[in-house]
Amino acid sequence: MISVIVPTFNVDLYFDRCVDSIVNQTYKDFEVIIVDGNSSDGTIKREEKWMKKDSRVRRIFQNSKGLGPARDEGVRNAKGEYITFIDSDDWWDLTYLEKMHRAIVDCDAEIAMCDRLNYHFNSQGEIVEKYAMTKPIMFDHAMNFSENPEILNMIEVSSNGKLYKRDLFLRNSIVTPNSAAEDRAVLHYLIWKASKIVKVFEPLYFYHAQRGGSLVNTVKAWKSIPICLDVQFDYFANDNNFDHSLEASLRTISIDTALAAVDSIRPNMAGEQDSEALELIDTIENCHKKRYPDLFDKQYIIGSYSLRREVWLAYHSFEEIRIHQQFSSVISLMSAPIDKEVNMQDIKDSNRKKWLENDFNKSFMKVIDPSESDYVFIDFLEERYDIGKLGESYFTWSELYETENNYDKVVERLDRLSDEVDTLFKDACRKFICCLLEVTSPDHIILVRNHLSLKHGVYTGTVNFLNQERLQAINEKIDQYYDFFIDNCPGSIVINPREEKSFFSYEGFPYGCTPYHINDGFYHNVAYELRSILIR
Fold this sequence. Notes:
Spore Coat Polysaccharide Biosynthesis Protein SpsA, Chain A, alpha/beta, Rossmann fold, 18 helices, 9-stranded mixed β-sheet
């Protein structure tokens, strides 16, 4: 039997949708345990309606102790061999229990997990956005930490969307804190202790993102994050089987948790003088700087969004990756500044404005000043763009320039695949390498051989981009550029990403499905290779 644990508190508007998706599951051998934190709206009446309607539904009252303790109360009262959690404003695919149960039993696993879809609604209750928010785990058989230590960093960090053996909680004496990010306090430890973990490659869990009244991204919601960080660390550190091989993983988990808080707080600060938010961010950062004094504080990135994502996943720094130049060809960076005002009135994003300005005034290379421990990361995906020529100087004919209609009769557009651009790149690349070697050593230059994706789709199937021939031609040209750089910068570190089944542009990506946006499964795979260099 499966025990379905549903913590509730004032979810009158959403509760029926949640329970309806549970009681109508194709798998029938389950009980539903509602753990109510003394709701004060119409939730309790709805619970009573469902208890009368279905004998499998029962309720426990808990005195508003929080989501984590509510789950623990459900585990203690569960009768099933297996347990699963669902938040009371979310819902399931009607085959959730059937497919998860089949997977966990067939593989004799202790945890089964599935993909998740996030839904955003407007004030009228209409869906305005739907996208996958799941870290894709690219393994096709049950495994555990010993077989693949990176599994700790690959999971979607939510207690929901998973089916567990109840004994996993009991024998490890799991007590979930009443804190922000309560899932993160215990979930990685459970993953580490599980004998086997299996993945169901289907979106079976549906998450109601950012409902009205949610405090998820406020300072108030994250004030208790230090409690989560301490519990998370103590579970591992106090385990008799903990050894030094786990330290790098625990470091990444801990920093990832802290960054989830910081990244949620920053966009919702009441201006730069929000003392409460700044104090909380300082508390979080200081906690980690004491525990991990050698944290990165600068990352120099010259290249694509893909590279930025890979580096961030690899090291997880508290400092934002603020020293990054995107949308710029090496040809542009190494040419003379262009005295031309660029139209940017429609560009809302401050980073994009900065990148376009840098591409014209060539100021980025002046700010590269790495310390002995810092790395410079490079890829050549931005060499996908044509080159603009204005007088004796050059700029990158990127989508930023295209979007703003910065056309001028005196501007000449040079095709990326032309012999002229090929010659320009080689000359510029030699200068580029000289500039880099003036400020750092070759063994602190990391070249990641990223490519444009030829396919797009989802994890269950992909199709080719219509302009595949052009994409292939650009990839071949980019490969020539990588080879040229390596030949002229001996001693630099080269990462060759494994472009296997995870190499495609994901249609659920919130910022667009394009050849230069790959999916997070691929980014994580590259990050693992980078991490082996960065964390020693």
